[in-house]
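In this section we walk through a basic example: taking a raw amino acid sequence and producing a predicted 3D structure, encoded as C-alpha cells. The instruction is simple. Fold the sequence below.
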Amino acid sequence: MTSFRRIIEILDHAVGGLSAPLGAHGAFWRGLTRDQFVRKKVFGQPLIIVGNGPGSNLVKALKGETPFGSDIGTPTASFRRMPAGRAPVSAAEIAEISDWINAGCPEEETSVPPIERLVYRIHPGIGVARVGSSPTDWFIGPEAPGVAPLPMGPFRDLRGLIKRQAARFRIFEYRFAGNGKLAGVREITTADASITWTVRLVNRKAAGEVFPPGTGELRNTAVLDRASLVIDSGSQSLAGMAKSAIMAGKFRGRECRSARSARTTRDG
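The resulting C-alpha cell sequence is shown next.
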C-alpha cells in the first residue's frame, strides 16, 4: 500500500518539482506531517475524508469534479482543477491517492496481505443410507469413526419396525493462505449463503448383476426392457430450511412411491 511520502512525491511532481512556480492553491502539502495533511483545509474545504477516496476533495480537485474544474467546463464548479494551470495528474496516480485514502492514509508503506483462496466442499464424499420398514422414524448414520448415530436410541420404532438410516451431507469452506497452507475451516449454512441442494435417487439393483458381482450374470433376465427395472427419481432441488421432497420413480411402468425422501435441516 502507498505511503504518505509517496503521496507528497506525486503532488510535487504534478506541479513540476520543488522549484516550479505554483498556482493559486500553493504547495499546501509541503512541510506537513501525515496527521496535519489529513486535517488540512484548502479554500476552507476539508482536504480528505479518511476511508473515502472518491469523496475526498483532494481526489475531486485532481479529477476536476464539482466543486472543482471551473477551468475545464465542469458544471457548477467554483474552483479550478488541480494543479491549476498545469497538465492533469495521471489517472493511475489519482487512483493511487484514492486507494491510499481508502486504506486509512497510512504513514508508511504496508505490505498487501496475500490473497487467500476459498474452496467449498461437500462432506462426506460418500454417504451410506439404508432402507427400513418404518414409514416415519429415521436416524443419521455414523459420520466419523467412533461417533454414534444421531439421534441415539433403539433402531426400531414403537411398532418394532426398522428405522431408516439417513446420510447427512454438509458444506464446508476451506480457506487457504497465499502460501497454500490451510488457514481455517467452517461449515456453511443458510446463515452464510443461499443454498440449493439437487438430489437424484436411483435404484439399479433389479437391473444389476447377481451377488457376488463380477460373474456377468444379470438379475431378472426374463425382462427385456432393462431400463424398466431401474427406479429413478430424477433430479429434485430443495432450498431453504426444513424442506422435503419424496424421491419417487417407476418400476416396470408402475409408480413406485416409498418412504425415501430428501430433506434439509433447520440450518438449510
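Looking at the output, two observations stand out. The longest strand covers residues 231-239. The first helix runs from residue 4 to 14. In the next section we compare this with other chains.
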